[in-house]
Design brief:
disordered N terminus, alpha/beta, 29 helices, flat, single chain, 34% helix
């Protein structure tokens, strides 16, 4: 909605202030600037506000708005006077405005940095979090316009509004003046205000998902008159699952006298139903979807599952159709799963919802599954069903035009029915938000992700989102930092999910291996070593072992304090006639269940080869009660049981680890599923993922920190002033690289010293530079095609005198070209050490990324670089150094002296702090950084500045654009 030209002489209509938001109850609304075209909407809105709310707003009876009021409240310059409205269905439900004021409280213009703010929320929409959401948005607008404080006068009886201000998390002052509460809010975001914002975001988005997954009533729009077809199939599946709510079939083609279909009420429109419907499943052709959505919106439907195809997957026309679908649904306050969705399933006994095309509702379980692809969803459901796994919820979101995996992470974070979250993703629409949500969720339950389209750089179809430029290896590293278990295939995802859902987390990587096949045990042993685990020598029970032998051996292994997990290997027993004996799989499963249930809580996995019935019997759990999943205990020391103590006694008397709160031991686990795998490599890989995840949980239980000593050597204001000067009053949006001396000056503000270089356009200048710096020196080229390429001969080291320098200069120019092309420089020699590279870049989608590796072509060719998101903590810096494959070179490989990794960690923290404090630093490279046994030397630095990119993750809550 654009204003008339005379409306905004000071500033154009700020369409970037428009936003769709999720409110506390899970419904959506739109926030936008108020324009001159809104006069009638404003009057209509005001007429629906109670006299009490009007009194609280104007401090006096104010039954109606005058023409002068309407003009004042709809005419803004979007700088000193701003008004925002919240709309549902195109009509106002709330407004907020600010007016810039001076120290005396009178209207003012910039540079005055205070504004008076006032809210009005329609009574029917109070309690939905409207005012708190509006405060976030109007505060962001005010900061953009140079306003730093809000002043508000509130009547003491207006407790709701006082609470909105008090709970926002901003620094505030309060006083009582002239019968009113005077509030002053500092609008600079604080850690508390950001935490409040994100907590509200989590509650609202989780609630919006819950409304879809637990409806009291469902209407299938497009249920056909005859069997078959998408709509009729969904209706059949809904009824077949035993949905506990009310179901309706809706099709405008139904005959007027048709009362039921498949035993449920049949109607030609939602209006004929006569009562509210919570969820609508839309299964009509794409051209008829707008009509169906309008019918839903006008009759109060809370959410949509759109199965219809013909949207962004069909090209430009379909993308526009998809955007219009999202606009229309959000305008009515509805959220969408789809379009082109496969459907949703909720296995809660209180709901029993199968609003999908899956003919069979999977068994109830503790796994939540989200997939973008319907085909992958079908495959995953089939695979989980075959292996006896159960689901809490299943979502196949199709084009995910609105609700995405991020929303379900918000929901699963606090869902008591879900212990493990599995996600198949083909794109990350908002990587910053995903890593933030995944890290929080992974702190309490495992998150396993398969990322499709790893090399094609797929983006969400129909979405307006920044495209990430970082390679897939970097994405994987950042997921690991967030605690996400990233696997390569859907088979690996199921393997890991089964173990994580039904087994406790291991306390370490020490693995006991036992079974009746020496060869299978050795394969398992080798697989453990390949995955970085610490296997104990396999225990061969021989082919004559009975189920009782397995039970006793497993009980003994679980009781052993030197073991953190057990892998049981089994092959069929062969009878005297040479045929495998039948029924042994079930007997063995019973024995293993008994041993696992009576022993300490340690994970058990089974590798079997053609053991009939074993996998099915192991998967037959007796309970789907939520597991106690304490923070994994630290690795225990190997304490063997005393010789006189039996394995069974040791298992019964060994102290169980304490839970996360430290207030009670974890009891032996109830009898449950034991995951079975047809190959040793698959079982061990799943176990290794559990070990790494448990280690991440232990390490992140105590958050890392940024050492305080950095504050004494960092001059943030001076760096900010220098950056402002370097960018100039009218910076080029493409940015600019800094000259060598400019980069040195900026880095020095953060305690990073770059060894100076002097230009050497000729041999005489080179000699003069060396005399100034002192021998020995290095001579090197700075031409882009030769920079940091010692292998091409562009660097001469340890030149200890004038003769050596002149000779090297002649060789350099004779071999590689003229000085004007090579741009030679002279630099004093640094102490010998290991050459490394430290980089930081700003990715438009993922944010700031800190990287580390060894310098040189081999590291680049092998991709041996580690990455962490900024800001990095002391733990991140230490892990960054140790996570590259060539890390042993830094710690005394082959008898070399270890280098000063503490100094290297400090440098990484300084770079992280610089990039985090100043988003204008869009790329930074320190190469090489020579790390010696004591200290380090930065020999080269390049920095690029640019106007800071928008930080949507720090702004007010909003849904993704379409």
């Amino acid at each position: 909605m654009q204003p008339s030209p005379e409306q905004s002489p000071h500033h154009a209509y700020p369409d970037h202030w428009e936003a769709d938001v999720v409110l506390r109850d899970g419904g959506t609304a739109r926030i936008r600037p108020i324009t001159t075209d809104d006069a009638e909407r404003l009057v209509s809105f005001y007429e629906q506000v109670s006299d009490e709310s009007k009194y609280y707003r104007f401090f006096a009876p104010y039954p109606r708005l005058s023409a002068k009021d309407v003009h004042r409240f709809t005419h803004h310059d979007y700088v000193d006077r701003v008004g925002l409205a919240v709309t549902v269905g195109g009509e106002f439900i709330a407004t907020v405005r600010y007016d810039r004021i001076n120290a005396q409280g009178r209207p003012a213009t910039a540079p005055a940095d205070e504004a008076e703010v006032a809210f009005l929320v329609q009574d029917a929409h109070q309690g939905r979090g409207v005012a708190s959401t509006l405060l976030e948005h109007i505060a962001a607008v005010a900061r953009e316009r140079g306003i730093r404080r809000f002043a508000a006068e509130v009547l003491p009886a207006n407790n709701k509004m006082i609470k909105v201000f008090r709970d926002a998390g901003y620094t505030q002052q309060r006083s009582f003046e002239d019968g009113a509460v005077h509030l002053t809010l500092d609008l600079e975001p604080t850690a508390e205000s950001l935490a409040v914002q994100r907590a509200r975001e989590q509650r609202a988005e989780a609630r919006s998902v819950q409304r879809l997954l637990a409806p009291g009533s469902v209407a299938v729009i497009g249920a056909g008159r005859t069997p078959g077809g998408v709509g009729r199939t969904v209706l059949r599946n809904l009824l077949g699952a035993g949905f506990t709510g009310r179901a309706y079939a809706v099709n405008r083609a139904f005959a007027a006298d048709q009362a039921t279909i498949d035993g449920v009420p049949a109607h030609r429109s939602l209006g004929e139903i006569g009562e509210s419907v919570d969820l609508a499943v839309v299964a009509v052709p794409a051209e008829r979807v707008p009509e169906a959505v309008a019918d839903c919106g006008e009759h109060g439907v809370q959410g949509l599952v759109v199965l219809s195809a013909g949207y962004a997957e069909w090209g430009a026309e379909g993308r526009e159709r998809q955007r219009e679908l999202v606009r229309q649904a959000r305008a009515y306050g509805m959220r969408i799963i789809g379009p082109n969705a496969f459907g949703i399933i909720n296995n809660s006994e209180a709901v029993r919802l199968n609003a999908s095309l899956a003919p069979e509702r999977p068994a109830p379980g503790r796994i939540g599954l989200f997939t973008q692809s319907g085909a992958i969803g079908i495959a995953l459901l089939s695979g989980l069903y075959r292996r006896g796994a159960g689901l809490s919820t299943f979502i196949s979101a199709g084009n995910r035009a609105d609700i995405s995996g991020n929303d379900f992470l918000q929901y699963w974070f606090e869902d008591p029915d879900t212990d493990v979250a599995l996600l198949y993703l083909e794109s990350l629409g908002n990587p910053r938000k995903f890593t933030r949500l995944a890290r929080r969720t992974a702190a309490v339950k495992p998150v396993v992700v398969v990322k499709g389209a790893r090399h094609s750089g797929s983006t969400p179809p129909g979405h307006a989102v920044p495209v990430s430029r970082i390679p897939d290896a970097t994405v994987s590293a950042l997921m690991r930092q967030a605690g996400v278990i990233r696997v390569d295939t859907v088979t690996e995802m199921v393997d890991a999910g089964l173990l994580l859902a039904d087994q406790p987390l291991p306390a370490g990587g020490r693995v006991a291996i036992l079974g009746n096949s020496e060869s299978l045990g050795l394969l398992t042993y080798d697989a453990c070593l390949a995955e970085g685990l610490r296997p104990r020598p396999p225990i061969d029970l021989t082919t004559a072992a009975t189920p009782q032998d397995f039970r006793e051996a497993l009980a003994e292994a679980l009781a052993d304090g030197g073991c953190d997990a057990v892998v049981v290997t089994a092959i069929p027993w062969v009878g005297e006639n040479g045929e495998a004996e039948s029924g042994d799989g079930e007997v063995l499963a019973t024995a293993l269940h008994a041993a696992a249930a009576s022993g300490p809580a340690k994970p058990v996995a089974v590798v079997h080869v053609e053991m009939g019935g074993l996998a099915e019997a192991l998967a037959a759990a007796t309970s789907t009660v939520a597991q106690q999943r304490p923070a994994p205990p630290p690795p225990a020391l190997a304490v063997p049981a005393p010789p006189a103590t039996t394995a069974r006694t040791a298992a019964a008397t060994e102290a169980a680890p304490e839970n996360a709160a430290g207030d009670a031991p974890v009891a032996p686990r109830p009898l449950g599923r034991i995951p079975a795998y047809p190959a040793a490599e698959r079982a061990v890989r799943a176990l290794a993922e559990a070990v790494r995840y448990a280690q991440w949980r232990r390490e992140t239980a105590v958050p890392g920190k940024v050492p305080e000593f950095l504050d004494d050597t960092i001059d943030e204001p001076a760096a900010a002033a220098l950056i402002e000067t370097l960018l100039g009053p009218d910076p080029d949006p493409r940015g600019r690289p800094l000259e060598h001396d400019e980069a040195r000056e900026l880095l020095a503000r953060y305690g990073i010293t770059v060894r100076p270089t002097l230009p050497a356009p000729g041999p005489e200048e080179a000699v003069a530079a060396a005399a100034r710096l002192g021998y020995p020196v290095a001579l090197k080229t700075t031409a882009p095609h030769l920079r940091h390429r010692a292998d091409l001969g562009g660097v001469r080291l340890d030149l200890d005198g004038e003769a050596a320098l002149r000779r090297a200069y002649g060789e350099l120019t004779g071999l590689l070209g003229q000085p004007a092309e090579l741009r030679p420089v002279v630099q004093s020699m640094a102490p010998r050490g290991v050459d490394t590279v430290v980089r930081a870049t700003i990715d438009p989608a993922a944010g700031a990324v800190l990287s580390f590796g060894l310098a040189g072509a081999p590291s680049e060719l092998l991709g041996d670089t580690a990455h962490r998101l900024v800001p990095a903590t002391d733990r991140d810096a230490a892990e960054l150094i140790r996570s590259i494959k060539a890390a042993p070179v830094l710690f005394g490989w082959r008898g070399a002296a270890p280098v000063d990794t503490a100094a290297l960690e400090e440098l990484l923290l300084r770079v992280s702090r610089l990039v985090d404090d100043h988003p204008e630093v869009v790329s930074l490279s320190l190469e090489p950084v020579v790390v010696a046994t004591h200290g380090l030397t930065v020999l080269g630095a390049s920095v690029r500045l640019s106007p800071p990119p928008a930080r949507t993750d720090l702004g007010p809550r909003r849904l993704s654009n379409y």
